[in-house]
Design a protein that fits this description.
Order of helices and strands: HHHEEHEHEHEHEEEEHE
Radius of gyration: 24 Å
CATH superfamily of the largest domain: Thiamin diphosphate (ThDP)-binding fold, Pyr/PP domains
Oligomer: single chain
Structural class: alpha/beta
Number of domains: 3
Strand content: 5-15%
CATH class of the largest domain: Alpha Beta
Largest sheet: 6 strands, parallel
């Protein structure tokens, strides 16, 4: 606006007295415009907090499997974009909403079907219905190959848990028809549509291996609700330090509820654990156990 006003030959000030970025406040405006000295102290610097998936997020187990299989992912816009950061480090591209499927399609057309044998596209249920369906139709229409993972957590998690066309509720919370995503994919013509629990990592690994090896389009739907949708009391896990072998397997998915003690054994923060059980399924030494209700 300032540049536009100046282009009209009108004197204007703005950037030279305000910050170029950041949030404005009434006090900042008073100091800059009215030249009032309010004696404001700078706010305390908040500690750095790297972006990370929530404890118990079903996307974490999916990315753990993809990382284990050394697969690359064409990413999309949503909570699952955080699969790009360590220690998961799976998402290699993020362009715009709905671009994951079309990116995979483009790679296959540019480099050939063998090139994408170690690639998948990942997209959320909300994003898929918003802008991803067209790309999947385009893959079928243009005789593509490739594997698409729809990470169905039954909500629009990134922007505040809004409902969408497959949740069975309108934005006002009224009951409505819920689009069946597996049936929609089959109607488009996808020959391979598999629905699986995101935390069933053994079968998930098996399914992903099988589908990426095929010379046709596959859709794997990991159907597991966002952990924040259920406000009821969650199960809780604890680490048994006397059994812990310090192998670090349970730390690989990067759950923020898990930390290391000074001696290298594992500790689970009971204020953060949501009871997803991913850490227990990875521990080969029975060093993680479910806390009984009476022991809490």
């Amino acid at each position: 606006i300032e540049e536009q006003v100046k282009s009209w030959g009108i004197s204007a000030i703005g950037k030279e007295i305000f910050t170029v970025q950041g949030e404005y406040s009434a006090n900042m405006i008073r100091e800059a415009v009215l030249k009032e000295d309010l004696g404001l102290e700078k706010p305390a610097a908040a500690p750095g907090r790297p972006p990370i998936l929530c404890p118990g997020c079903p996307h974490r187990s999916v990315y753990y499997v993809l990382n284990k299989l050394k697969l690359h992912a064409a990413g999309d816009i949503g909570c699952y974009t955080l699969g790009a950061v360590a220690p998961l480090s799976v998402v290699d591209t993020t362009i715009c909403m709905g671009a994951s499927i079309s990116s995979l399609h483009g790679m296959e057309k540019a480099k050939g079907k063998e090139y994408i044998k170690n690639w998948v596209a990942v997209i959320g249920d909300s994003t898929f219905l918003h802008t991803g369906v067209n790309s999947l139709m385009n893959m079928m229409y243009n005789k593509a190959t490739g594997t698409v993972l729809i990470l169905d957590n039954s909500t629009t998690g990134m922007t505040g848990h809004q409902d969408h066309a497959a949740t069975g509720k309108t934005l006002q919370g009224d009951p409505t028809y819920a689009i069946n995503i597996p049936a929609l994919c089959k109607a488009i013509g996808v020959p391979n549509v598999i629905e699986i629990n995101a935390f069933d990592i053994v079968n998930l690994e098996k399914v992903i291996k099988e589908e990426v090896a095929k010379d046709e389009v596959s859709v794997i739907i990991t159907k597991t609700p966002c952990v924040l949708l259920d406000k009821s009391k969650k199960p809780l896990y604890r680490a048994l330090t006397d059994k812990c072998k310090k192998c670090g397997m349970c730390m690989k998915p990067g759950c923020p509820a898990m930390t290391k003690n000074a001696d290298g054994t594992i500790r689970i923060d009971d204020t953060m654990c949501t009871g997803c059980g991913l850490c227990e399924s990875l521990c080969k030494f029975d060093a993680i156990e479910l806390v009984k209700e009476g022991d809490r």
